[in-house]
Structure formats: structure tokens, C-alpha cells
Amino acid sequence: MQTIDTNLDLGGGLTLVVYSAPIDDGRAKITAYNQQSAIAEEKRALSLEADKKLKALASRFLSAVAGRYGKDSEEYAKAGGTRTSERHRSRRTTPPKPNGSGFEG
Asked: Model pTM?
């Protein structure tokens, strides 16, 4: 529109200034959104990194408790571990044998 006339006025309130205002407003909102999105992503990455560090520390604590009290102790269970006497082995189920017809159903 500016290439037509920098002071374009088509009457009835249709001027270049009126036309440009919502465009500029939209651009400003998109820029603000992108900035907030980048900040949120940075905070997300920091949170994930902190979570990894906490998980590693918790694992070290659990290992230390297991070393001191044993993996079948009440203390190990209180620290978040599963006592070896409370572990259940999963039973394997054999898949059904094919009926030989090559037809399922």
C-alpha cells in the first residue's frame, strides 16, 4: 500500500495509518509471544536438567542405603527401594500354537 502512495487516503477512514496499525500490533504480539516462548523453553530445559541431577542423587542415596542396610531391609524399602523378598518373578506365558491351517480366526 505504501508503494501506491505514502499518504494514501481512500476516504471513509481508510488511510494507510489505519491499515498499518493492526499490522504493527500483530507483529508486536508475535514478537512478545516468541520471546515468552523462548524463556519458557529455557526454563523447561533447566527443569529437566535439575530433574536428572535429582534422579542421579536419589539413585546414589538408594545404593548407599542398600550398601549399609541391605536390599532386603526395612530401611531400603523406606528409602524407596523394593525389598528383594517382595519382588515377584513374572511368569512367562507361551504363545498359542498355530492350528496348522494357516488361517487365523
From this structure: 0.56
